[in-house]
Amino acid sequence: TNYQAGDYSSPLVTVDVAIFTLIEGQLHVLLVQRGNHPAQGRWALPGGFIDTDSDLDLSEAAGRKLHEKTGVNAPYLEQVCTAGDARRDPRGWSVTVLYMALMAHAPTAEFVETVTDARWWPLSSAQQQHLAFDHNHLLEAARQRLSSKTAYTVLPIHTLDEPFTLTQLQQAFEEVLGAPLEKKSFRRRILSADILEESGEAPPPGGRGRPAALFRPKAGLEDHAFVRVVGEGR
Amino acid sequence: TNYQAGDYSSPLVTVDVAIFTLIEGQLHVLLVQRGNHPAQGRWALPGGFIDTDSDLDLSEAAGRKLHEKTGVNAPYLEQVCTAGDARRDPRGWSVTVLYMALMAHAPTAEFVETVTDARWWPLSSAQQQHLAFDHNHLLEAARQRLSSKTAYTVLPIHTLDEPFTLTQLQQAFEEVLGAPLEKKSFRRRILSADILEESGEAPPPGGRGRPAALFRPKAGLEDHAFVRVVGEGR
Question: Which parts of the sequence belong to the Nudix hydrolase domain (chains A, B) (predicted)?
């Protein structure tokens, strides 16, 4: 009476990926337009079925599906949550494991598998779409994780072209957090975290007053480096 | 060329549950001894396969498996993370969704399905066991979530017999957090959160000095009520 694979009707298992970036200072998310049923023609988070013959684990499957459907490679993927029930997919009981990342803008590929288009959408426009399956809910879950995570990581630094001013950096954090930051406190925390170095390049000419200093991340800065930009603490 | 269920070899899908409680002030976790292969005879977190015919969603499946295997009903279940790869289960590519809860001590049932025993283990003893599959890792993930969550919820209050003293309450928080708390700060935060009421009962006789006041949770206190007992903030 021991279990054998095939004894049970197993749920479908997919991975989905919410990739965020900043384009001209505005938060964007990467969506694909579905080429196949169900939800053909709808926009969706890139994702798809686990390939039990080739994928070693969930995170690898997520990276593979992202690349196959958009041409984009994520520098890291963070697991957000897992949704699973009898109704979210018309093909049957379905489980999806959601991953997310915030990364520098990368172009999408022209040829992609099983989708008719892959495009960076301004987040607010994406949220107003009727996305496939429960992807509006998944996108909201990923966006909340991104905001809460941004309160204590340096992730937004990697969305900026170098070199950047502290004002540009603060604007990037504010856009990803979805909330304003107090300038003096932000600068004190960022500078005391010792993660930036002055670029040494001359600031662009023009403007009034003292020109803003230009910075870039210190060599070897880890994505998961810790800097608390909001809330209590130093 | 549209997808049909059965076209792909789908991973096995299970749910596992880490249920914590305090027994005589010490953190315990609920484990079952496996009656079947694989890992027959090993202790494991209670869990099992999704039943796609009867389970409506992942959380319901987790509650059902917990009850079937231990007789215990959890008042809530929080999703912790999902593990999935080609090697964690000898039966094949396997995904498990991990849930956790902290609750008042409840007795285990004498008759349970597919397990030979269900027992509350002191956490440190459980961690020293070689548990089935990757359950040592899952238990560690659940324990970390419990600790971080306890920093800002009232959950440990529900593990105590009423009425309790503030010292007993602080000890419960410290055991679940796995870290000491500063007495004066803890009392200020708990009392200013306005979640306790004096029980009105006479404290036990004896002892020196002023007897400690006895408290219980205010009626209607929500499990997810917010009180920050450690770190910055008021």
Answer: 12-146
**CB-based contact B56 A2, cutoff 8 Å:** no
- Residue B2 to residue A36, Cβ atoms within 8 A: yes
Selecting from B83, B91, B231 the residue whose C-beta is nearest the C-beta of A5 gives B91
A97 — phi, psi (to 5°)?
A: -100, 120
Rounded Cα–Cα distance for residues B95 and B82 (Å): 7
pLDDT digit string, tens, across residues B90-124: 999 999 999 999 999 999 987 667 788 999 999 99
Please give the DSSP secondary-structure letter assigned to residue B184: H
Q: Is residue B7 part of a domain?
A: no
| Residues on chain A touching B51 (C-beta within 8 angstroms) | 8
The residue among A50, A51, A63 whose CA lies nearest residue A100 is: A63
- B95 and B205 belong to one structural domain: no
Note whether residue B80 is domain-resident: yes
Residues whose CB falls within 8 Å of the CB of residue A130, separated by 6 or more in sequence, listed in order:
A42, A136
**Do both B175 and B142 map to the same domain?**
no
The total number of residues shown for chain A amounts to 234
User: How many angstroms separate the Cα of A189 from the Cα of each of A103, A193, A234?
Assistant: 22, 6, 7
ipTM value for the complex:
0.89
Domain match, A115 and A171 both = no
Could you say which of A99, A128, A150 is where a domain stops? A150
Residues of B in contact with A11 (CB under 8 A): 10, 13, 50, 52
Same domain, B172 and B137: no
pTM score of the predicted model: 0.91
Query: What's the gap in Å between the CA of A38 and the closest CA on chain B?
Result: 8
**Minimum CA–CA partner of A4 in chain B:** B91
| Residue B39 with chain A: CB contacts under 8 Å | none
Helix or strand or coil: residue A82? strand
Into how many domains does chain B fold?
2
Q: Quick one: closest CA in B to A60, which residue?
A: B85
Q: Same structural domain for residues B138 and B26?
A: yes
B224 — pLDDT class (breaks 50, 70, 90): low
What is the span of the domain harbouring residue B118? 12-150
* CATH number for position B177: 1.10.10.10
Cross-chain residue pair B85–A57, CB shorter than 8 Å: yes
Residue A89 has pLDDT above 60, yes or no: yes
Chain-chain contact of A93 with B50 (C-beta, under 8 angstroms): yes
Lowest model confidence (mean pLDDT) among A24-28, A105-109, A117-121, B210-214: B210-214
Minimal CA separation from A202 to chain B, in Å: 40
